[in-house]
Design a protein that fits this description.
There is one protein chain. With 532 residues, this protein is an alpha/beta fold. The protein has two domains: 2-64; 137-516, TIM Barrel (Alpha-Beta Barrel). The chain is built from 20 helices and 15 strands. It has helices spanning 5-20, 27-46, 51-55, 61-68, 70-80, 86-100, 166-179, 192-197, 221-228, 259-265, 285-298, 313-326, 347-352, 357-370, 388-396, 406-411, 434-437, 442-466, 492-495, 514-519; strands at residues 120-122, 137-140, 149-152, 154-156, 182-184, 200-205, 233-239, 250-252, 273-275, 304-308, 332-336, 378-382, 401-404, 480-484, 488-491. An eight-stranded parallel β-sheet has the order 4-13-12-11-10-7-6-5. A three-stranded antiparallel β-sheet has the order 1-14-15. Strand 10, helix 12 and strand 11 form a beta-alpha-beta unit. Helix 6 (86-100) packs across helix 18. The radius of gyration is 25 Å and the shape is globular. The chain starts with a helix and ends in a 13-residue tail after the last helix.
Length: 532
């Protein structure tokens, strides 16, 4: 309760000052001051707009004071905090502006260092187009899919109930419902807050099979069918790995399991909840494809795919070989970049395990092209995609749609306090403390989620039209330019080219090493013919 200490202190001092009036009339000045602070604190607790003030009455105003003088201290912050990525401040500000529906334009030109190596931009056309409708969609579902889904090209990435509060989940889902886009449940399954929101769901299944597991932690087909039949569930996503900590399992201690979490996950109270690093239902590429076929069958033919952060490139090729051998092709694949991840993860894993999104996306896209399968499925991408330029770039490099976790967290009030793992989130987003979670006012934050999605796609439509294109999926690598060194610029086509369709099947050599790895991959096992 220390976060209410200033409010309690102001109230106590108001009472003491009133008593002091017995001895001196001058105490009336203190009565006015402390009463005003007390009234301000009570108003902070009751107002619905700012979660930080609801959890930190009076003292929370210091944050807004520093925000107000930010232009004057900006250079100092840049010099004092050189290790912080520009994304942390600039992109978060952009999300806040779009979520609140306020002006997101700035004077005095670009905020980026245009002469630095690595600076990127989209080429524009002398014949720009006007795009009136920015509700961009992608059709997900192959020939074996009986219930295809026309998804928005910008959706909420996987964040579980348990890692986020019930109010946060409800606000995200209500915003998705209003905006007509999808909300990935994360590994923690479908909670009452997902159902109450009524928005479209992508049900993520991890190695713990939460929501459809046996008491021993194995997959339960009957429970899966019951959950998957929910009309809210539009797609099934099998999580093989995630960007924040690929190849790493997890344990939710019994002390942190609430009745609501136990209900959503289908686990007992009083016991640790274990998510193994590997799936117990399959161990080979062919078994993985057979399991995907099983999920498609038991879901009534809804789109089924998998998510992974690329690790050993040959192992992804093993999966692609299994698609060819079994003729079971998932409806979609989501490539998760190692730079993604909104929750806590071991530091070494967060920094040095897994492939970044751009490299992982490029590799997966070209491998599927090389195997002649790219047209049979869709590719989603996730990993710090919070702006229209981020989206245009990943669409140019081969993705069909984008997911964002961080962007939508900012939209519901996340301030990157980095207290997600402590249960002390100051704005009620990443906590199971009901007193902290109450700070997040669902109707207000749901509207912000809706506006962030709408305004980001509106900006993407403007960028697409400026490039002379009719739809964001028309972006290609040659529309992307980047600075290399002091005076050279290269196209995305030079750095991340689309390789020829079917080149792996034709045993065509390439300078990127695809064929060499392809020859060492096999559908029967993830193990190589020789060491990679």
């Amino acid at each position: 309760m220390t976060r209410y200490s200033l409010l309690f202190a102001a109230a106590a001092l108001t009472v003491l000052s009133l008593i002091g009036l017995i001895w001196s009339g001058w105490m009336s000045v203190l009565v006015v001051v402390f009463a005003a602070l007390t009234a301000l604190g009570i108003y902070d607790v009751m107002q619905p707009d700012h979660a930080i003030l609801r959890n930190y009455p009076i003292m929370g105003h210091l944050r807004f004071l520093f925000e107000g003088i930010r232009p004057e201290i900006r250079q100092y912050l840049l010099e004092a905090d050189q290790d912080e990525e520009p994304f942390s401040r600039d992109q978060r500000s952009l999300v806040y502006q779009r979520a609140k529906g306020v002006e997101d334009k700035r004077p005095f030109g670009t905020q980026k260092r245009v002469y630095d190596s690595g600076y990127e931009w989209i080429t524009h056309s002398m014949a720009p187009k006007h795009i009136a409708d920015h509700d961009f969609r992608v059709h997900i579902g192959g020939p074996d899919c009986k219930q295809p889904y026309d998804a928005s090209i910008y959706n909420i990435s996987a964040m579980s109930f348990g890692s986020l509060s019930g109010n946060a989940i409800l606000a995200l889902n209500k915003g998705a419902q209003k905006g007509g886009f999808a909300h990935d449940t994360g590994e923690g399954s479908i909670s009452r807050y997902h159902r109450e929101g009524g928005g479209d769901l992508i049900w993520e299944l991890g190695s713990g099979y939460y929501g459809c597991r046996t008491p021993e932690g194995r997959f339960d087909a009957e429970k899966f069918s019951q959950q998957a039949s929910n009309p809210q569930v539009k797609m099934i996503e099998l999580k093989l790995s995630q960007g924040a900590k690929p190849g790493h399992g997890g344990v939710l201690p019994a002390s942190k399991i609430t009745p609501e979490i136990a209900e959503a996950r289908g686990i007992p109270m009083g016991a640790d909840c274990v998510s193994p690093a590997a799936h117990p239902e399959f161990s080979t590429p062919i078994e993985l494809m057979q399991f995907i076929g099983k999920l498609r069958e038991h879901s009534g033919g809804k789109p089924v795919g998998f998510k992974l952060c690329i690790g050993h490139r040959r192992e992804f090729m093993c999966i692609v070989r299994a698609m060819l051998e079994t003729d079971i092709v998932p409806d979609f694949i989501v490539i998760d970049g190692k730079e993604g991840g909104t929750g806590a993860a071991p530091l070494e894993f967060a920094n040095h395990v897994g492939m970044p999104l751009i490299e992982g996306l490029t590799f997966a896209h070209n491998t599927l092209r090389g195997a002649g399968l790219r047209d049979r499925l869709k590719i989603g991408a996730s990993g710090k995609i919070v702006s229209s330029f981020n989206m245009a770039k990943i669409l140019a490099l081969g993705a069909d749609w984008a997911n964002s976790a961080r962007g939508y967290m900012f939209a519901i009030g996340c301030i990157q306090a980095q207290a997600c793992h402590t249960n002390h989130c100051p704005v009620g987003v990443a906590t199971q403390d009901p007193m902290r979670a109450r700070a997040l006012v669902v109707p207000d934050k749901a509207e912000r989620v809706y506006r962030f999605h709408k305004n980001t796609l509106k900006a993407l439509a403007e960028m697409t039209g400026a490039a002379g294109l009719s739809h964001p999926n028309d972006f290609r690598p040659h529309h992307l330019l980047m600075r290399e060194g002091d005076c050279n610029m290269v196209t995305g086509e030079e750095v991340h080219p689309y390789l020829p369709d079917g080149f792996l099947l034709r045993d065509e050599e390439d300078k990127y090493g695809y064929l060499e790895r392809w020859k060492r991959s096999r559908a029967e096992s993830f193990a190589p013919f020789d060491a990679e």
